[in-house]
Write a structure and sequence with these properties.
The complex is a heterodimer of chains A (about 375) and B (about 325). The longest helix of chain A has 12 residues, at about 5-20. Chain A folds into three domains: about 1-120, DNA Polymerase III, subunit A, domain 2 (DNA Polymerase III, Chain A, domain 2); about 135-255, DNA Polymerase III, subunit A, domain 2 (DNA Polymerase III, Chain A, domain 2); about 255-370, Proliferating Cell Nuclear Antigen (Box). Helix content of chain A is about 15%, strand content about 45%. Chain A has six helices and 28 strands. In chain A, a hairpin with a 6-residue loop joins strand 26 (about 345-350) and strand 27. Chain A is α+β, with helices and mostly antiparallel strands and about 375 residues long. Chain B has 16 helices and five strands. Chain B has a five-stranded parallel β-sheet, with helices on both faces. In chain B, helix 1 runs antiparallel to helix 2, helix 13 (about 245-270) crosses helix 14 and helix 13 packs antiparallel against helix 15 (about 295-310). The radius of gyration of chain B is 23 Å and the shape is elongated. Classes of the chains: A alpha+beta (about 375), B alpha/beta (about 325). At the A-B interface, loops of A face helix 4 and helix 5 of B. Chain A: Belongs to the beta sliding clamp family. Chain A: Keywords: Cytoplasm, DNA replication, DNA-binding, DNA-directed DNA polymerase, Nucleotidyltransferase, Transferase. Chain A: Its main location: cytoplasm.
Chain lengths: ~375, ~325
């Protein structure tokens, strides 16, 4: 194989792909980066077996010629040396050549590197995706959905399936759900999917956060393909693949209470700062417990008490309180996470009693939902 | 060994058990393959993995030429996990990694195979973690545990696996092989009992240290027979200088074991099985008369106990001192 390319073009692709490569891996070939030259461009692939990133450099784009003199072929190069070499090349023009004995020559200006590569056939085969089970959505929206749900995944390995975000698609509604069994975050959006449906697709929390970092903020759209054991997010030049979690995601819709006893309407910002202040005295080892009690039609009392440290009480005027009087304790961390994730000005909190989960939602929409279990205090 | 047919030559029973279960599509979710070094444990694990992933299997045999087979050979297949001891034992972290791997779907296919080599070196923590997936096998996941030391496997693990016992290699056949390679018959007999690996055998044969070790051990036996009181001193004067590394010490005890076994064989007139002493040598009969059969059996047990102590990191000099004192007593 053989090609000539601009150093800066290659470097930015290499950097994208490097995000997926880990130096500590059980499979020796995965310490390398796969470089594949095709008639119409170059594909770089990196993987740590959990996630894989493919970056595509088209031979020609927008009347610019990116890659020249392409002779097709593929090779795997060690990811510890290859990126550094490309970064430090003296000139912008890079000639890349590999022979059938997996010897690679990289030439730039007067510098010449000879590297030992590995057979590309040894590299894991990424699933071949079919266009008929894909749908499209804007990148910005996907990133928002990730941000609003992924924080709620479980950090405990006891139930591995909960360490992921469950995605389902039905009747052109895309749903993301994450829960660690003490709280649940869920978000729905309408997408154009032509009746495509799937459920029980669970993306590991680590992968989805990595995806969030890898996608850049742009106006573009991302195509999403679901296969048996992997999910592919495809943008213009980047393919992000993640393995899925194996197992059945618990049925979460039943957890969401449908009758309401007390409703609080509040300004998100006020609520966040008040709870944040109260949590200063709440202790990590006691679940950061903060108490909330209603008094009258517009006042909340938020308090926290740690016998060894002291206590705090603060009154907060809210927009409205409807329904029964309420005293409830909850983890300030969970509530703060949820309020921050919702990211709207006004929220509505539905309570169904002191021992029942409560739901935080934006006042004017139903698409996002944060469910939190209260803490029992004596 | 690239095919089950080749495997059948040295392990006819194991090969038959596995090929039958493949034919009837009743592959167990966990195998415990136990057998001494060089009996083909890895070959079995690799063959089984290849058979499961091979793209063009020929009956029960994998093709060995497809991309899948090649990558299993080079340990590059992402859905075949090899767990090897990290240092002396298999650590909890390695199992934690494996556990994580199991909560994920497969990378290329839905099948997963994990092969734990030297499963006897699992630390208790790691062993208890592995129990969990032996108990609740997920679909299309196969565990293959390999061990040389089947007694050290937790009974809870053993009871969840299909056990495949490998026959010890026929030392006679190996001895013939060594003689064909130009080794002396007397050396070949001894070395064939110590190792099953042909390269290691040839290396031992050329090793000056090995010749000396052998001499020292024969001397030690002689001292134990004739001048019991000097034996303790000879540990310090001769043994300590020569057997410095763990491997050497283990080999030394093996030599000692074989020496006393020879004397026992001599008593029992099974002279054909003797490896260290010459059956017709004058010295042999002199030494043999010094020990009764009961005494020899007791000594053999003491040596086995010493080997075990050495494995459990008892100080080697203390192990030898204790052994010699116990033989004296």
């Amino acid at each position: 194989m053989k090609f000539t390319i601009q150093q800066s073009t290659l470097m930015s692709s290499v950097q994208d792909v490097m995000k997926a490569i880990s130096s500590r891996t059980a499979t020796p070939i995965l310490t390398g980066m796969k470089i594949e030259a095709k008639e119409n461009g170059i594909v770089l692939t990196g993987s740590d077996s959990d996630i894989s990133i493919e970056s595509y450099i088209p031979a020609e784009s927008d009347d610019n010629v990116n890659v020249e003199n392409i002779e097709p072929g593929s090779i795997v190069l060690h990811a510890r040396y290859f990126p550094e070499i490309i970064r430090k090349l003296p000139e912008n023009n890079v000639e890349f050549e590999a022979d059938e004995n997996f010897r690679v020559t990289i030439r730039s200006g007067k510098a010449e590197f000879n590297l030992n590569g590995q057979n590309a056939e040894e590299y894991p085969q990424l699933p071949i995706v079919h266009t008929d089970n894909s749908f499209e959505m804007p990148i910005a929206l996907l990133k928002q959905m990730i941000k609003q749900t992924s924080f709620a995944v479980s950090a405990m390995e006891t139930r591995p399936i909960l360490t992921g975000v469950n995605i389902s698609l039905k009747d052109n509604i895309l749903n993301f759900t994450a829960t660690d069994s003490h709280r649940l975050a869920s978000k729905e959006i309408p997408v154009e999917a032509d009746g495509l449906a799937f459920s029980n697709v669970v993306i590991p929390g680590k992968s989805i956060n990595e995806l969030n970092k890898t996608l850049d903020d742009s106006e573009d759209t991302v195509e999403i393909y679901v296969t048996n054991n992997q999910i592919l997010f495809k943008t213009r030049h980047l393919n992000f693949l993640s393995r899925l979690l194996d197992g059945n995601y618990p049925e979460t819709s039943r957890l969401i209470p449908n009758q309401v006893k007390t409703v609080i309407y509040a300004k998100t910002k006020d609520l966040i700062s008040t709870i944040d202040r109260a949590s200063l005295l709440a202790r990590e080892e006691r679940n950061n417990v903060v108490k909330l009690s209603t008094s009258g039609q517009q006042t909340l009392e938020i308090s926290s008490n740690s016998p060894e440290i002291g206590n705090v009480t603060e009154e907060l005027t809210v927009t409205a309180i409807e329904g029964e009087e309420l005293k409830i304790s909850f983890s300030s961390k969970y509530v703060l996470d949820a309020l921050k994730a919702i990211d709207v000005e006004d929220v509505k909190i539905d309570f169904t009693g002191a021992m029942r989960p409560f739901i935080i939602r934006p006042t004017n929409e139903e698409k996002i939902l944060q469910l939190i279990l209260p803490v029992r205090t004596y | 060994m690239d095919t089950f047919a080749e495997l059948a030559e040295i392990q006819p029973l194991a090969s038959k058990i596995i090929t039958n279960s493949i034919r009837k599509d009743r592959i167990s979710h966990a195998y415990l393959v136990q057998g001494a070094r060089g009996t083909g444990k890895r070959a079995i694990a690799t063959l089984l993995a290849k058979k499961l992933f091979c793209e063009h299997p020929n009956g029960v045999e994998p093709c060995n030429t497809c991309n899948m087979c090649k990558r299993i050979d080079s340990h590059n297949h992402p859905d075949v996990h090899w767990i090897e001891p990290d240092g002396k034992t298999i650590k909890k972290e390695q199992m934690a990694h494996l556990q994580k791997e199991f909560s994920y779907s497969g990378m290329e296919t839905n099948k997963k195979v994990y092969i734990v080599t030297a499963a006897d070196t699992l630390t208790p923590n790691a062993a208890n973690r592995i129990l969990k997936f032996l108990e609740e096998p997920s679909r299309q996941t196969i565990a293959i545990l390999l061990t040389e030391n089947s007694q050290s496997i937790l009974p809870t693990i053993r009871s969840r696996c299909q056990v495949i016992d490998l026959k010890p290699l026929n030392p006679e056949r190996f001895k013939q092989q060594l003689i064909e390679k130009g080794m002396q018959a007397t050396n070949a007999a001894l070395i064939a009992t110590l190792t099953n690996d042909i390269d290691e055998a040839l290396q031992l044969n050329d090793d000056n240290w090995f010749a000396q070790a052998r001499k020292t051990m024969v001397q030690l036996i002689a001292t134990l027979a004739e001048n019991v009181n000097d034996a303790y001193l000879s540990i310090h004067s001769q043994w300590e200088g020569l057997f410095k590394e763990r491997k050497q010490q283990e080999l030394g005890l093996d030599l000692l074991l074989l020496g006393f076994r020879d004397l026992l064989y001599f008593h029992m007139e099974k002279t054909a099985s003797m490896v260290l002493f010459q059956p017709d040598g004058e010295k042999t009969s002199q030494l043999a008369i010094r020990f009764s059969q009961e005494k020899l059996i007791a000594i053999l047990q003491l040596i086995l106990k010493a080997k075990q102590n050495l494995k459990q990191n008892v100080h080697p000099t203390l192990v030898m001192e204790q052994l010699v004192l116990q033989i004296q007593g």
